[in-house]
Amino acid sequence: MNSSHFSISLHILTLLDQVKGQLLNSEYIAGSINCNPVLVRKELANLHKYGFVQSKEGKGGGSTLAKNPADINLGDVYRAVKQKSLLGESKNEPNPDCPVGRQITLHLNDLYDDAETALVKNLSSKTLKDFSASFK
Amino acid sequence: MNSSHFSISLHILTLLDQVKGQLLNSEYIAGSINCNPVLVRKELANLHKYGFVQSKEGKGGGSTLAKNPADINLGDVYRAVKQKSLLGESKNEPNPDCPVGRQITLHLNDLYDDAETALVKNLSSKTLKDFSASFK
DNA sequence: CATACTGTAACTATTTTTATTACAGAACAA
DNA sequence: TTGTTCTGTAATAAAAATAGTTACAGTATG
């Protein structure tokens, strides 16, 4: 992250929950999200890697949840989807000749890890079932 | 956020704390961060807007902290620096003809606000003084 | 064997972020 | 009062990240 990986993944999972086991194909899902089907397939590949969804190839194929929605918590989804640190991840190396520059990356990482842990903990208190149930 | 606004702001504040009231100019700060001085000046302008720093124009000018580092908490810095939601903020509108697409932006925003509040609360438990003191 | 999917790669377009250039205005010091 | 060195800010350019597109091999189905 950032970008829209988490939003897209959660959108996919919510759709899959709402249709109760029915297979949805990437074009249908992309139509709901309003994005490119290939992006959906990439996101599904990642969700599959982490065991959240199952896919069936070939004609009539598509995807479905691989777990009970009550057993999918949003912190786990976040971790599966996350690609980089939420706050930091700057690419330009601070100046090693400066006492602050030399150490700040380390200290920022500690700070960010701790803050992000708090965020994930919050997300972990909610399941896909909870989230999906808020739709009417 | 994201990007490096928070990292840069915190780097600036740490430097200003370490030099104990001495004025630092944008070129010096940029040298420690290893970025462009104009970026530092923009970041300083924002920190000034929120009352964290004071600047002095003209020859011999520069910036210094406007508050006691023990009274600057990192959650406040985060809020001052933040430009967009940490998780969400997708620009393509989901499909309004889909029950999930129609409501998901709202539900994601609720989810993200709550998660981000947990993150800010974590950051708020730490002051610039604490952070700066971890440098040796 | 035609059809309709997934999975994936390669490429392009778009958007976001960062860097650069430029210059007016402020403070200082000779 | 003039040259110097800063800030503040705008406009632009470059670079990086993100999303979209095209293409196609492989797989299941009828």
Short description:
The structure is a homodimer of 136-residue chains. By secondary structure, the first copy, chain A, is mostly helical.
What layout of secondary structure does this protein have?
Two copies of one chain form a homodimer.
Chain A: H1 5-18, H2 26-33, H3 37-49, E1 53-56, E2 62-65, H4 74-81, H5 99-124, H6 128-133
Antiparallel strand pairs in A: 1-2
Helix pairs in contact in A: 1-3, 1-4, 2-3, 4-5
The structure holds a DNA duplex (30 and 30 nucleotides).
Q: Could you characterize the architecture of this molecule?
A:
The structure is a homodimer of 136-residue chains. The first copy, chain A, is mainly alpha-helical and 136 residues long. Chain A has a single domain (5-133), classed as Orthogonal Bundle (Arc Repressor Mutant, subunit A). Chain A has helices at 5-18, 26-33, 37-49, 74-81, 99-124, 128-133, and strands spanning 53-56, 62-65. In chain A, strands 1-2 form a two-stranded antiparallel ribbon. In chain A, a hairpin with a 5-residue loop joins strand 1 and strand 2. In chain A, helix 1 (5-18) packs across helix 4. The longest helix of chain A has 26 residues, at 99-124. Chain A starts with a helix and ends with a helix. In chain A, 34% of the residues are buried. The model of chain A has no long low-confidence stretch (mean pLDDT 95). At the A-B interface, helix 1, helix 2 and helix 5 of A face helix 1, helix 2 and helix 5 of B. Chain A binds a DNA duplex (30 and 30 nucleotides) through residues 3-4, 25-27, 35-36, 38-39, 41-42, 44-45, 55-63, 91-92.
